[in-house]
Amino acid sequence: MRIGITCYPVYGGSGVVATELGRALAARGHEIHFIAYSLPFRLNEITENIYFHEVSVTRYPLFDFPPYALSLTSKMVDVAKYEALDLLHVHYAIPHATSAVLARDILEKQSISLPVVTTLHGTDITIVGQDASYAPVVTYSINASDGVTAVSDFLRQETYDAFGVEAPIKVIPNFIDTERFSRQDKKHFKKAICPADQKVVVHVSNFRRVKNVPHVIEVFKRILQEGLAVRLLLVGDGPDRSNAELRARELGIQDAVRFLGKQDPVAEILSIADLFLLTSGSESFGLAPLEAMACGVPVVCSDIGGLPELIKGSEAGYLCPVGDIEAFSQACIKVLVNDELHAQMAKRAREHAVRHYNTSAIVSQYEAYYEEIVQRKVRSFSLPE
Ligand code: GMT
């Protein structure tokens, strides 16, 4: 198939999933056309079957706010028409689903069929999408998509509860390349970071408010108070980073905490981790803990959103109530002090990721769904009005 993919190309789970999906589909022989405002950050090598079309936004003195969604729509029309796309798959509803639906309708007037699949990822539904300035458009765009997927049962239900959505939503969970995300021997790195062989707690996120990163610092302080030799590595960057840095200094624990910023070699960092910690206030799936689990790292995460679907029953870690610093701290300490429990959890984490979230199984689900949507569209397109 010839498939167009639109996503946010910057750091973030939805862009990662979209890019990895495109790469996996290309490896299966599909022709993939990424349409975005810059090259998706994990698309950093030349790959057969993968093309990139940059959306450039024309500036004009009248435009205080250049209408990116319209430039994106025009690029979608252009790529779909001249690359003869069979389907357009957009990740994150705002504004991608809206642009895609508009592009499809423009092409329909030219008797060109372009089925649109929208994948809902998280805050497009749980937070920003519910803002009055977006909600009616989000609802319309989801209902008007030819196919809709959500990354967890939680997100599917939330979409029905929060919006007037009638469209059927298929749950296709996120996935992971379990070869790339596997524990590697990184003794030198570990020695450089932890000269006294301290244990390592890792947090990875985009440091947005919803991630509650200052809570990670609070929890870590309590772990240190327990007398454990441990270091905290924080990977990523975003609006709450300076608050977290400030809090670490206020608590006097800055020497045990390292902010690594945005990093590509996440698997290498996870390879020296003893525990992954995520204190989010909302999380529709939790790609970051899945990456940790694939690297054999036990996880302690918020009992919220799609995280229970990922973690419950896996014996890979613990879920704690959002904001309950004491519960998080106790859970972390439990994992860090008991070597036998830790080894068991690490093993279970890896097994769970490989068994349920490997690329091959999940990409096949997307392929089957594309076929279904294209067939349905072909039938409706050829029906007389
Ligand atoms: O919705 C967002 O915050 C953006 C998105 C992203 O691009 O990082 O994150 C969401 O999508 C990821 C991939 O499906 C999920 O793993 C994250 O749980 C989800 N984030 C939230 O729900 C906060």
Report on the architecture of this protein:
By secondary structure, the protein is of the alpha/beta class. It has 15 helices and 13 strands. Helix 8 links the parallel strand 8 and strand 9. The mean pLDDT is 95. The site of ligand GMT has 21 residues, from helix 1 and helix 4.
Compact overview of the structure:
By secondary structure, this protein is an alpha/beta fold. The chain has helices at residues 13-27, 68-82, 96-108, 123-126, 135-144, 153-162, 187-193, 213-225, 241-250, 266-270, 287-294, 307-311, 325-337, 339-357, 359-382, and strands at 2-6, 31-36, 50-54, 87-91, 116-120, 147-150, 170-171, 199-204, 230-235, 257-261, 275-278, 299-302, 317-320.
Global shape:
elongated
Query: Which strand-content bin applies to the residues?
Result: 15-25%
Q: What's the end-to-end separation, in Å?
A: 27 Å
Cα Rg: 22 Å
Small molecules held by this entry: ligand GMT
Largest sheet: 7 strands, parallel
Helix content: 40-55%
In N-to-C order, the SSE pattern is: EHEEHEHEHHEHEHEHEHEHEHEHEHHH
Number of helices, where a helix is a run of at least 4 consecutive DSSP H or I residues: 15
Topology:
Elements: E1 2-6, H1 13-27, E2 31-36, E3 50-54, H2 68-82, E4 87-91, H3 96-108, E5 116-120, H4 123-126, H5 135-144, E6 147-150, H6 153-162, E7 170-171, H7 187-193, E8 199-204, H8 213-225, E9 230-235, H9 241-250, E10 257-261, H10 266-270, E11 275-278, H11 287-294, E12 299-302, H12 307-311, E13 317-320, H13 325-337, H14 339-357, H15 359-382
Parallel strand pairs: 1-2, 1-4, 2-3, 4-5, 5-6, 6-7, 8-9, 8-11, 9-10, 11-12, 12-13
Helix pairs in contact: 2-3, 8-9, 8-13, 11-14, 13-14
The chain binds ligand GMT.
